[in-house]
Recover the amino acids of this structure.
């Protein structure tokens, strides 16, 4: 069975500081990995995903995540955050080669302070 | 742009009422999902549908049922609402493979009194 652990429930950070949101997963098969973001009073939207190839993936708004197979991690990073990055971030995993389910982590609430 | 709409943003119902939550997507996606979102628990899958009239139980199906009569519409039904079903309900749709992105609606915040 798959599982996803987001190691921090809340991360407060000052504007323009770097941030890392941690995600670890477990699975007996190969997986696809996703980060979704939920802004206040909205549904989730995809931030970035790892399917195959380069282990470093980037989003259009400056976030990046690196797939580390040996550590079964997919941590999300941004070198300099903005107030507008305040949101809840969810790490998710889907099984390769079939299956319908995506397993979501519990979420990390990022607070960016001025 | 993919659009997933949910019939209500906020809903207040009484214990024992039958509740219908509607979800419509406009991208001809095969898969549709219903989740509930609770603080500290993330998203938990209630039911999903991989085609019209096809459905599978998720992780927490008890107390819920679903209906998918048309490809674009997926309904969640609470047969007899209870206070422990107070939650945020999110609908999502996706193309028919696990590599695909899920597109979410804005959510329905249901309060059962």
């Amino acid at each position: 069975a798959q599982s996803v652990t987001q190691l921090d429930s809340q991360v407060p950070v000052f504007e323009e500081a770097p941030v890392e949101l941690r995600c670890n997963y477990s699975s007996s098969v190969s997986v696809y990995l996703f980060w979704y973001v939920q802004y206040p009073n909205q549904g989730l939207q995809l931030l970035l995903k790892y399917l195959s190839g380069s282990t470093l993936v980037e989003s259009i708004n400056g976030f990046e995540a690196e797939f580390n197979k040996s550590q079964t991690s997919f941590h999300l990073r941004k070198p300099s955050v903005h107030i507008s990055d305040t949101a809840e971030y969810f790490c998710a995993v889907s099984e390769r080669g079939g299956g319908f389910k995506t397993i979501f982590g519990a979420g990390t609430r990022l607070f960016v302070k001025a | 742009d993919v659009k997933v709409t949910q019939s209500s943003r906020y809903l207040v119902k009484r214990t024992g009422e039958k509740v219908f939550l509607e979800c419509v997507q406009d991208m001809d996606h095969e898969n549709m999902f219903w989740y509930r979102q609770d603080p500290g628990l993330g998203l938990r899958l209630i039911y999903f549908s991989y085609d019209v009239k096809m459905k599978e139980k998720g992780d927490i199906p008890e107390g819920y049922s679903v209906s998918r009569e048309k490809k674009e519409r997926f309904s969640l039904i609470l047969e007899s609402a209870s206070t422990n079903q107070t939650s945020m309900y999110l609908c999502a749709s996706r193309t028919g493979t696990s590599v695909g992105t899920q597109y979410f609606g804005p959510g329905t915040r249901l309060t059962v009194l």
Observations:
- The interface with chain B takes residues 6, 9, 32, 34, 36, 41-46, 49, 51, 90, 94-102, 104-107 of chain A (CB under 8 Å).
- The first strand of chain A starts at residue 3 and ends at 6.
- Chain A is about 0% helix and 55% strand.
